[in-house]
Amino acid sequence: MSKKDNGTTLILAYLNEKNRPYSSQDVFCNLQKQHGFGKTAVVKAMELLALEGKIKEKTYNKQKIYFADQSQFKDVDDAELKAMDAQISQLSADVQSTTQSCRQLDAELKELSSSLTTEEMISEIKELKKECSGYRARVEKIKSATNHVTPEEKEKVYKDRNVYVKEWKKRKRLASDMMNSILEGYPKSKKQFLEEVGVETDEDCKVVVPSS
């Protein structure tokens, strides 16, 4: 920006290019970062352009709005406006479609990023094959064993267990009944009685009668 024009050339070109209304604050915010304009310089430049008739100025609610002089642009007929509207609609649809495609590609990228790499998959497959081989060896060892329990033997063990548990419960009940009869005429406590006769209960040995 030359000191001579104080940014008026750039601001004029910007307003003509955008061809929409702006406040001096809008122009300052839009051009300050790229061209280093100061706010006061922008205000003075836009007021000067309006004074020279190069741009138009309107006041709304005590705020000045500036826009390009429309007389410099050629008139646009209805057919051209319709064509522009159709182009805008098509471009909007293209933007929407492209945005949707980008979102889908982002989702696919995240999924791929969280997946195993080819090298990791190969390593994982090797480990799984090694694990499967170990399981097969164990299965073959079990199949080749000669000390399998037959179904008949297993059934006999369960039946014998039920008999022993039933007898255990029966004897415990008889012993309990007999001890209760003695304790009716015994002057001391049950604990003292058990200590004197040297009897250890299931509870003393922390044994629980299994369920049948």
Automatic annotation (TrEMBL):
Subcellular compartments: Nucleus
GO biological process, one term: homologous chromosome pairing at meiosis
Keywords: Coiled coil, DNA recombination, Meiosis, Nucleus
Family membership noted in the UniProt record: Belongs to the HOP2 family.
Lineage: Eukaryota, Metazoa, Chordata, Craniata, Vertebrata
GO terms assigned for molecular function: double-stranded DNA binding; recombinase activator activity
Name of this chain's protein: Homologous-pairing protein 2 homolog
Pfam families with a match to the protein in the record: LZ3wCH, WHD_TBPIP
Top-level taxonomic group: Eukaryota
Coiled coil region boundaries: 118-145
Organism: Eleginops maclovinus
